[in-house]
Amino acid sequence: MQDTRRHDMAQSLNILVIEDSPVDRKLLDSMLNESGKFSQINIVSSFQEALAHINKSVYDVILLDLDLPDSRGEQTLVELNQQYPLLPIVVNTGAYEDDLGLRTLGMGAQDFLIKGKYNAYTLNKALHYAIERKNMEMQLKLAYQQLKETQTQLIQSEKLKIVGGLASGVAHEVKNPLATILYGVTYLADNVKAADKNYDKVLSSIKEATKRANSIITDLLDFSSITKLEKKSVKIVEVLDKAFALAQHALDKKYVEVYQHIAENLPLIEIDQNRIEQVLVNLILNAAHAMEESGQLTIRINVEVIKETLPFYKSLNEEFFPKATKALVLMIEDTGCGLPEGKLNTIFDPFFTTRRSAGGVGLGLSVCKNIMDLHQADIILENKESKGTRAILVFKI
Fold this sequence. Notes:
Layout: E1 13-18, H1 22-35, E2 38-44, H2 47-56, E3 61-64, H3 74-83, E4 89-93, H4 98-105, E5 111-114, H5 120-191, H6 199-225, E6 232-234, H7 236-253, E7 256-262, E8 269-271, H8 273-290, E9 295-305, E10 326-334, H9 364-374, E11 378-383, E12 389-396
Parallel strand pairs: 1-2, 1-3, 3-4, 4-5, 7-9
Antiparallel strand pairs: 6-8, 9-10, 10-12, 11-12
């Protein structure tokens, strides 16, 4: 087991010594006990014995000899570091192996000692410093990861801003000609008769295509213009019921069975009801489209306190949902085909769609993401462990 507690030189340590030489083991035991800084000292002589100890006890630092009966050389360090990346490791090298010690610093060790060239004080200091170096290393890795995530969010935000501006301009330019086409087709269908048997069929096709194009334009305008919300306290169940009423035809067409698991006494949430209804309709329709003839749609709503043990915790926006925040969580699960694993990072990008051949444009999820961001709420899409997709909406209470 591993522990990442912070130590100082006055605190005692739990240490595991991995050393196969009886002479060196005796010398190390004497030095460690001389310092009086260690609450637990375990000394083992093989790699496998060391793994067994680490798995059942908490250690602050490892003192490692690289040449063991069951693991030799630098690979010993590599394997230990791979299995327990949070454990500080001090390598105890043979005499005159300074170059080897230096190499180990680039392979995961926090420090190295040369046998026969240190005393009890030097050993004690190296072990404590190794813990501090490991803490600093982990903090730097975390900061780097946060920096990368922030950079990704900034790039995404700028991308949405640019696409939104283009979408708005194109939409306004195209909407008026579409209205004229639709008016003309409707006039011909109602007032002009033709002997050609395909006449009505062609007009109907033009009318449907025009309506489809107009729907795409409406999506573009939605994508580019959602900037303000009209929020009020509402019951999420009422919004969900309205969304189901709008999407019912698509569910019936696919013979989708709906199951609901909704906690009692849910609190009111502050949302723009029409916008969240739009998000729910989009997700329900996406789920219906993802399922073949027949399928199951499951809705789960409950209240959660944000903590690391939540399955979706790592995907949450920490800015909106720091630990201990109380939240309402709504999940929509389907038994459809799921999302392409390689595309999970781009599903909220404008114009991303898995239904291009069926006429999908790829703005629905971008609009949903925009709406949720404006609410300082979160939307997460993931593949289920079994077949299908899970959409998770998280709202502050």
